[in-house]
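Structure tokens please, single chain.
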Amino acid sequence: MDIYNIAASLDEYAKKAPYQAAIYFPVGRDKDNRAEYAALSFKQLSELSDQYAHGFADYGIQKGERTLVMIRPSIDFIAVVFALMKIGAVPILIDPGMGRKSFLQCVAETEPVNMIGIPAAHILRFFIRKPFATVKRQVTVGKRLFWGGKELSELKSSKRSKFKVEKTLTTDEAAIAFTSGSTGIPKGVVYEQGMFRAQVDLLKNAIGIKEGDIDLPGLYIFALFNPALGVTTVMPDMDATNPTKLNPAYLVEAIETFGVTHSVGSPTIWKIVGKYCEEKNLTLNSMQKILMMGAPVPPSLIGRYEKIMPNGEVFTPFGATEAMPLTLIDGKEILGEIADLSDKGAGMCVGRALPGIDIRVIKKDDRPIAKWNDALELPQGEIGEIVVKGAVVTREYLHRPEETANAKIKESDDIWHRMGDIGYFDEAGRLWFCGRKAHIVETDVETLYPVQVEALFNRIAGVHRTALVTKGKKAILVVEMQKDVENIFKKEFTEKAQAIIEENSLFESVSEVLFLKDFPVDLRHNAKIKREVIEGMVG
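Here you go.
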């Protein structure tokens, strides 16, 4: 079997480009409100991860042990994760903003042997013990109070020797991450080392991330790939759990200070930054790529960045925690014929499959499918459930046999993952996304796909976003207006919406148009609409 450990890449780049900056992290602002940063070179980051790896190993942390990491985004967060991977331990990464009940369930399911976290995390562990019952070793990032274990500063070894990176197999567990939980309780996704290798290869060879690039990760999880790509990370000065509250001036300042070349983030982030740049008449000249993902990206947002980013391009990759990246399409292709088709209800085009990725559309079925059969596949143009296969596709959910059976289809030694998304292929072999399977609206007269229908209304002046939801056997269009114009355009929207309903023969299916001040959304992207919550509010 193949040997691979993603942590070895950090040491390789420390040899190749020792004094290249590996990470800049904001630590405050000066008297003139300019950002101040802590920084480490690749050499320093490699050495720091070695010191932690020596300390963790001396403390007893071993290969294969699942280790809960509850550290705020920081230089230490990156160094600790790579130290664990050097040992061959398996970091568990859980979004703390998912809510306490879901978070504790996720902890219990992963059965961590070790826990490395801030004091608040250990206080939670001390008072709510059952989910943490498997934890044998505790490491506090900060001051340890009345609980046991060690402080991270104590485990920063004085040894200066290189830590020998564990030789892990491509089939060994590398990390555990969790889905966003936008359609239910988050599920643990087991990443193997070989999946990390495949993701790094696609980011490098298919998406074009280069050594020496400078990344501003709007989704913090992507910062973990950068040391394996030889890419400098500039951590944004923002609250990752609430992107809607970000100060766009701070992100633009970081881009201009460091000459950021690319970024990954949700449409929510780039709407806020785009509006700021237009108001201030700013251009982001260093930016070569922005990857917008996590929710449907309207062509109008892509169009705004043609002027804002004159030397770069917007891309909208398709994927999920269980399988990413899968497809790619650039803004230039979208802004031609595709944008017009999207506005008329064709869905959102997410492009063609990346190398080594196999994507099919099968007949929608809510039941498990045990074995793959080519007869499952639908012909080009027909809407169905999107399934994917490839080296980046995870094989199971952790301790969720029922969910694994519902989401995975076996084909010999391979696994097809059922994305839970609905779509179709066009004549050019491009994949179109029409919404989540769980969000399909079945009325007395027709089946409606949310992304297709909502696009008809999202281009009306003053609209922030819309959601098509179910009320019995009827559909309701719920509208969130832009905050600065919501009272001005409501009447105009209602008139135009009724005209669109009639033009598209939706009058028998869409029974009402309602307004909601703020849509409930997922915490990770602040872009995925929680439709089931809206249904409860308007039902």
